[in-house]
Structures are given as structure tokens and as C-alpha cells.
Write a structure and sequence with these properties.
Order of helices and strands: HEEEEHEEEE
Helix content: 10-25%
Distance between the termini: 66 Å
Largest sheet: 4 strands, antiparallel
Number of domains: 1
Strand order of the largest sheet: 1-2-3-4
Structural class: alpha+beta
Strand content: over 45%
Number of helices: 2
Shape: elongated
Length: 129
């Protein structure tokens, strides 16, 4: 057998193994409950849909309506990030930002925001403005 044929055979075996390499899959939250000093977030999902999301912030509890939950359709959640700011009263005052996301070791694939301000209540956004 020639050296060239041996090298071609080895390369073919190497590339075949790359095709069958494992791929990272997402583990999706079915239920979740996160609490900080300022906010708590509780939710449930099934059949790849978020069917319950309750946010408590600034002494008020907000359960997302069907319309608000519909804005989250297509988002599978395996991560939550919470931050906040004191804010200006004319812009809604104190505000909490809840980032719901689908992430992998390589980064965040998709995300949406739940924004709760002391003066303006709760909203669902695709991005921060």
C-alpha cells in the first residue's frame, strides 16, 4: 500500500469521526424560582412554551397575561439574569430588568426582557431601548 493511500485513508477516518462528534444540547427550565433582595421571578413551562410567569417587585406582584406570555413564544429558557437601576422619576423611577435567555457554553442564542418599573409596571421587550 502506498503512503499516499495510507494518508488518504487516515484523513477519511478522521473526517468521518468529526461528523459523529457530539453536540451540546439545551436543558430547558420546566419550573424556576429566583429571588433577590429587589425581585422574585417564578415560572413554569411545558411543551416548549412558557405558560406561567409571576414577577414580584416594588411590593407588587405581576402575573403575565396571555398576551404578554405570547410575546415570549419561541423562547426556551435555561437562564435568567436580573439587574436594576434607581432611575429617574420622569422615566418610571426604579426599574428592574429580567433577562430570560437560552444559552450555551458558546454564548446566548436568544433572549427577551421583562422590565418592571416602580411607576410604569411590567412590560415585555425584545431589546432594551
Amino acid at each position: 500500500m502506498s503512503i499516499r493511500r495510507v494518508i488518504c485513508t487516515l484523513l477519511a477516518i478522521a473526517f468521518t469521526n468529526l461528523v459523529f462528534a457530539s453536540q451540546e444540547g439545551a436543558e430547558v427550565f420546566q419550573t424556576f424560582s429566583i429571588s433577590t433582595a429587589a425581585v422574585s421571578v417564578k415560572g413554569e413551562s411545558s411543551d416548549n412554551l412558557i405558560n406561567l410567569l409571576i414577577v414580584t417587585a416594588f411590593g407588587n406582584t405581576h402575573q403575565l397575561s396571555k398576551g404578554q406570555l405570547a410575546k415570549l413564544d419561541g423562547l426556551l429558557i435555561n437562564g435568567i439574569q436580573i439587574s436594576g437601576e434607581a432611575g429617574y422619576p420622569s422615566l418610571g423611577g426604579e426599574t428592574v430588568y429580567i433577562k430570560l435567555f437560552m444559552g450555551f457554553t458558546s454564548g446566548i442564542a436568544k433572549h427577551k426582557y421583562i422590565i418592571v418599573s416602580k411607576e410604569n409596571g411590567l412590560s415585555v421587550k425584545n431589546k432594551l431601548e
